[in-house]
């Protein structure tokens, strides 16, 4: 029987066999001759038993008593026996891996036969040492100490200097150790499977040890024991499978012998077969008992462990069990664990789930058993194709492909469409996996007879003819993308035969369709030509398109041969086909003149921006050097620009001469011509027409007279901006002279001055345009202009002075951080008004992002960000992602200056509050609470690595203390300083100080305190008292431990801020009490600027409502942060904000919330009913308190019952699995919808 307490070790020197016992579950056979205990209980199946002196099996009552007694105790741990003996331990042998594992196990078995107590002690210490513990478990400890004392002793002897242990240590030796460790356990069970594992001693000891260690708060114990237990379970599953095979064989032999006629029937053989069958049945019952103990005692708790690696181990191994012994484990009662874990926060766990399922779906014979699981979790699997972890997304697509191969009806059209568009993903593995899915769904031929009939045909009538048509249609119907090169690259590995059928593609373009065949439209022909060109380039260059790879990789010999063959094939085919294709295209050139004439008419008649930009883009494409028609189009374009430029110059002269007397016709002539020229200047270099001069005249006149129409001013600003950029392009592409540089500098300087003056314009569109152009030009003409060997462009570098910086900041404060309710008063349900609100928000986000870029790249001084950071909480829904990213980037630039900026933003809010409420602040007011909450959010951004942020946090406290004592109370020294209440805000950052710095900060605080201050206890002095306490008593909260957080059955660890972890990592004492930050110069030099941000994004992940606030305690970049902050899923500089989408729960799963304060207990009655999905929180799901009730839990927990063999009668079916939902700690998100 398996108990959670290790069996009492016997004294091998006691010849009489008498033992001192403390075990209540010991039966009388343990008092017999110890020589009998080393003998095998049962013989190998199929052979005569070696002895008839078998130990009687324990009764059900004895087992239940032992189980009940064992579950109430903590669990013991052990280590290598240090009392002499062989100096080479099992741990060292396995770690070195020089000996064959079979011989190592055989030696241990021989030692077990000689003295099983010492052999087991060696095995126990092996597990302890594999956990990285330096402690030693001795025989005396087993005799005189309870398991709770033993595990406490081993925990105390843990090496706290490092959080590493063998399973997590880097290097090839430790990677090999992990493999050897798992192999040792597997070989041990394999060698002991015929006798020793049934002696009710060895396996009881090992399983109870691993169960105890797996519930330890020490991560190393928990991780190592869980891996050992899962590998032990896998070995036992293999033993159970072998037993089932033996039972079936024995049953067949028995039936064959019994069916013989009476004269030939051997009764002795029948008796032996019956005896063997009975023995095999007993053995199988024993194996079931062991597996139940491991599954219920370890797996059901550790598959939801706080550590992702532990959860991944559990899921990986349950996948092995289901594949190895599908008759017993491949059912809904076990599959649901994998299904639930598909929602895990960590990508590595989700990855293990998908790979485990792939191994099952690969075997088509298992599909009937997976049908219910597929229906239940299909939507979740499909949604994981958009997982934020690309490795997970790839495996999810592969799993969906396997589901498609097994049953095409399993996936709906909507499911397939969710995967289709991923062929355009910038991440190549995702795109290739999606291409394989697309190939299986659309391009696989399922009719062998039709394929054989078409195989003899070539060209358009070949089997690929219709498939190429289908590919063209798919390409045209892809509304989100128009990148043929990406589509071809995605399908290249799975559909090369189709994509290299250039003969078929050519015939589709050249030949007339046969009767009954549809003619390709011009749009389809263009798409086919584009696809054909992309396939040719892919075959000839043999590398992915731009954006799909990190660079050209070295081709293998096989790939080089394939490339040469493809080039030869291309040459042979297109040397004949290309002239015919070109002749077909030349027939269309006669229409060029008509096209250019129509475009000119459109430009002259319309002034809509979209229409003009489309015409401009058309001219730009037709003027490309790759076309022979370039010169003809260029002449037509130049003639059009000449006419518009002359018209614009005359209109400007007339407008400026008439001044305020100008009529609407004059204004319209200038505006219409300027809009056309601006649209063309965007895509064409028009610097030789010198449009900047007239635009500048218009802007200066508008500033001086104040009567320029806003539309003309906006267009003039934009056109001038384009002119400057084209001049910069010319200079950077060539070798500019000094005069050219000075001329451009004068132009830029004058334009910046005009933009700065426009910031005070009465028209909002003019101010916004000037602001955006100022930010863009300051970015372009910053110090980054001279990087990369362009030091000669130094004269073009502009740095904004403090006046311009203040004007830009004030503009942001006045036009970005405004209340939308005051701006928009309208009825609900007005779609047009809602669209206007969204558009206005997009515009404000762009304004804020433009200014934040200047801060990030050190163009505007970082302290200016304080006015931005202080709005983080109030405007979180609108700008939270931008402000958070700005904070992150500025911290990368200069941690200390960023910390100073954070505390400055809090000081500004505090000063504003003092101005509103006066010196007597109500510390319970919502305003004070808001500042404290903002401080708490700021503190969380420092992360968990306190060493990296040590100096920054200390500097923050230094500035906060100085601010709190900056102004004395005018009523006298017996009254608190005016800013003393700020210490209550500052205390939110105390948890980010390490112990040594808390002492240093406290010493610095005492320099500002008088003797009377430390004795005051009035309410007005409470901020000082609470801040001092946070520095004096919070030292044990450092997150520097090899242990994970404690757990609870009633609530999340996040609500237990005051609960310190059990073990702390020691940090070396600093030589100086006063930290270096005390004397650090406040004038800090920021490092060099960051790289220019990449403003592109790949496929957007699924969105969540913006109202959800992120989990403040989650790790940076965690899935919870990803789920609750949809703006993190897109580039934070994107021009538009993602709409708030409420995703429908397509899966129909009802996630049951388990509120800790309600004490609700909800049972989970199988996969078909409303399952309470486990919540994967960053806490341990089982604790010592739960272990005390484990005996009661197991009454409601599923029992592993192996399927009946042919010789066994109907057995009890698998009972449903019940969980105590009160033991589940709810995620703050409540799992109210799928996580992705």
TrEMBL record:
Matches recorded under InterPro entries: ARM-type_fold (IPR016024), Cohesin_Scc3/SA (IPR039662), HEAT_SCC3-SA (IPR056396), SCD (IPR020839), STAG (IPR013721)
Pfam families: HEAT_SCC3-SA, SCD, STAG
Domain SCD, chain residue ranges per copy: 299-384
Coiled coil: 263-293
UniProt-annotated location(s): Nucleus; Chromosome; Chromosome, Centromere
Family designation: Belongs to the SCC3 family.
Subunit: Part of the cohesin complex which is composed of a heterodimer between a SMC1 protein (SMC1A or SMC1B) and SMC3, which are attached via their hinge domain, and RAD21 which link them at their heads, and one STAG protein.
Protein's name according to its UniProt entry: Cohesin subunit SA
Record gene name: STAG1
